[in-house]
Amino acid sequence: MHMLYNSDNFAVVQFVVSGQDESSPEENAVPARGGYEIVDKSSRMELFLDGALAEHFKLGVEALIETSPGVEEMDAFLANYTTLAHQPVVLH
Questions:
Q1: pTM
Q2: Which end of the chain is more exposed for a tag (fewer CB within 10 A), N or C?
Q3: Count H helices, E strands: the chain?
Q4: Is the pLDDT score of 33 beyond 60?
Q5: Is the pLDDT of residue 28 over 60?
Q6: CA distance 20 to 73
Q7: 2 in Cβ contact with 68 (< 8 Å)
Q8: Average pLDDT over residues 15-37
Q9: Three-state secondary-structure class, residue 5
């Protein structure tokens, strides 16, 4: 788990799950899995992106980073994904 972004409005955490057993040879390696969790702090909702949607998100973030965005631009990009957020944030 890696915190990638944290602002007053959003938090983005990357989850990487390596499928490779350290004792297994390289030819039997399983590709890494994982995704991104985006938390919309204002609505207290979160979503988890994996698979093709996670790859699309990653490419969008990489393209945005090339422009040296400010917090406003990054938050605006993340706000595009908040319509997918249907899971409430619950603290234990």
A1: 0.79
A2: C
A3: 2, 5
A4: yes
A5: no
A6: 37
A7: no
A8: 67
A9: strand
**What is the rounded distance in angstroms from the CA atom of residue 85 to the CA atom of residue 12?**
13
Q: What pLDDT shows up at residue 27?
A: 54
- Cβ partners under 8 Å of residue 84, min gap 6: 47
- Rounded to an integer, the average pLDDT of 39-61 is 94
Q: How many CA atoms lie within 13 A of 34 on its CB side?
A: 15
What is the gyration radius of the CA atoms in the chain, in angstroms? 15
Across 31-45, average pLDDT: 88
Q: Compute, in degrees rounded to 10, the torsion defined by CA atoms 36, 71, 91, 48.
A: -20
Write down the domain spans for the chain. Answer: 2-88
**Tokens read off for 80:** 């595009």
Q: Which amino acid is at 15?
A: F
| Amino acid at site 74 | M
Place of tokens 């390596």: 18
